[in-house]
Amino acid sequence: MGEELSLIWTLPFAGMLLSIGFGPLFAPHFWHHHFGKISFGWAALLAVPFVMVYGYEAVVDIVHIYALDYVPFVILVGSLFVVSGGILISGTLVGRPITNTLIILVGTALASWIGTTGASMLLIRPLLRANESRRYKIHTIVFFIFLVSNIGGALTPLGDPPLFLGFLHKVPFFWTLTNLFSPLLVASATLLVMYFAIDTFWYRKEPAEAKMAPRDPKPLRIAGKQNFILLGAILGGVLLSGYWKPTHIDLDYGALEVHDGELVILDPVEHHDEEHHGGEAEEHHGEGNTADHEFQAKDESGKPHGETKAEPTKNQDAEGEAETELSGMQVASVIPAQPLDSATAELELHGVEVPIQNIARDLILVTAAILSLLLTSKELRQANGFTWFPINEVAILFAGIFMTIVPALEILAAGKNGALAPLIANVQTPANYFWVTGVLSSFLDNAPTYLTFFNTALGRFYPGMSEGSAVPLLISEHNDFLLGIAMGAVFMGANTYIGNAPNFMVKSIAEEAGIKMPDFFSYIGKYSLPLLVPIFVLMTFLFLM
Amino acid sequence: MADTYHEVVVEGPTAMVKGFIAGYLVGRGLASGEIMFAGEQDIVGESLGERFSEWVGLHHYTHLIVPDRLFPELKRDFGKIEETLRLSIAKERLIKSASFAFRYRCYNRGHAEQLEELVQNIPEGIILTGYEVKERVDPTAEKVELYSPTHPYESTAHGTLHGDVRGIVAFHEKCEQHDLMDIERIAVHYVDGDD
């Protein structure tokens, strides 16, 4: 399909991203009240003609992206937000340069594990309280946005949404840690030293009353500590989905098992009976069929290995009767020549296979969020300013993004045979990928931008190949390209207020606390261009050349 | 009663003017701020022509704000040092009043009240004109928003403060202390009507 699609199909995607970027900037009240309708409008503008023209193929594409990207994405962002929103830091901090630097350092370190949004929400209010009496504090908020709301999220897929999308698209969990650690270290160390010097300069100019110790200092306290355990559960759930490849799934109606490197689908009724009634299983063989229950085996490339109900296997005779017995259970079907470590079990949903480990991960994440809600007091959440609104925003807007991105991804997957061939041809080196992904991430949301260039790279090197096969090859053969994309998406989100979702949130909270934050262009002109861009140039030479 | 002031444009190196004025005030036992330097007080001074002239190195101009009671003697004394220090009065005009425009935008009712109090409680001799406040309350706005940030409360205001030079300079300084206040430079208005 990607080879047939023209660029006109990508217009709703462009419209969607531009609306998200510039709506809050130029018409904040209108956008606030109508973003749902606008998102729905762009989504419908794509979906209706797309399904009319491409029929079931389009439906499968849409279900695919919703089941494999959108739902896990919203669940991760939502659960991290709920759990980190249950942690409250209280007590007196005094906004001296060393204290501020430490707060930003802690936030930078935390962002990779609780998400840039969670870390920003957790620490922005303590930082504002610490600097209440300071006169010169705009730079502090700006560096907080640079480091806590953006760059700090580089180490794990939990840190920043684009990295989680990469993880969902088969980039290993620890790829970020091993590949982005050095860039993160260079960027954050440089910025922290810079911040300390700038804040020391301004601190010396503060009037005497701003430097006075508070009269009634309160000890520093962290409430809602149980949420740290739940954050661990979220991390565990995500890790589980990356490293657990279930090859034996027991359900009420059947079981999958691996024997001698082959995935064996056991007759569901027999299996059930075998467990409960021992030898009576023989009577029911051949009646149940696992394929009817939407289970099948698939390799990592996403291609099904065998339809269990139709194809005879080496364990079936010519009449199709399954007669083989393994471990005392009746075999309904055997999938041959499947290596043990690559066989996975999946749930099928309208032609889209959802791996069991992903379902397990999502269930763990949802459970962690529910437990956090049950175990954390409402007062604590109120003190954090917690509401459901940000999760609604993510759910609504990303429903539009993921709908409209479908044709763009199809075109990119077609590589040089697709309508975006000029993009693929012109973005050539890892440094190109870094800057193009980065500059676009500065003005559009970085998650879909990452996904776009991730697919651009896959389309360039492995056109037509499934993700399961192409991503490991991309990492082993062209790792710098993925590095450039990830660095661009995560680091350059700091370039503008609209580069990453927490940026605007931090700006908004700071403004309500009486800080006159720079406007959109002043932020770029006074801070991003002189402070961040030279660091990005340095990083290009250090890591991508 | 408020002083009347003269704007005195002195031609010559600024450092030399500053040195002369500092010595002049000490010598006469006057406070250091009696004669003000327009640039230091954020008073609009140089014209475009003067700036260009300075930029290309043709002339240097320093704008002084001098109380009427000191002006005759200062003018005389500048005449005395013209030859030795090469400082001369290029222009002088009698000032009628001064003014500056301000605006603010804030997202917290407490801050809005503070700012309103600041511009309403002005000292005697200063007048507030064109003061307009707009408040916007959005009950749907939340405390934390990621993609559609808007504030539950927003107050914007603008206006202009007029008065005698000394009072306006002092109040301009006071407004400058408030982070949320956007203030323009002080404009002086001349008796001869040509601003």
Automatic annotation (TrEMBL), chain A:
A Pfam family assignment: CitMHS_2
Segments of skewed composition (Basic and acidic residues): 296-317
Region (Disordered): 296-327
Residues that span the membrane, as ranges: 7-27, 39-56, 68-90, 102-124, 136-153, 173-198, 228-244, 359-376, 388-413, 479-498, 527-544
Database matches in InterPro entries: CitMHS_2
Domain of life: Bacteria
Keywords, ordered alphabetically: Membrane, Transmembrane, Transmembrane helix
Name recorded for this polypeptide: Citrate transporter
Organism whose genome encodes this protein: Kolteria novifilia
UniProtKB/TrEMBL annotation, chain B:
Protein name according to UniProt: Uncharacterized protein
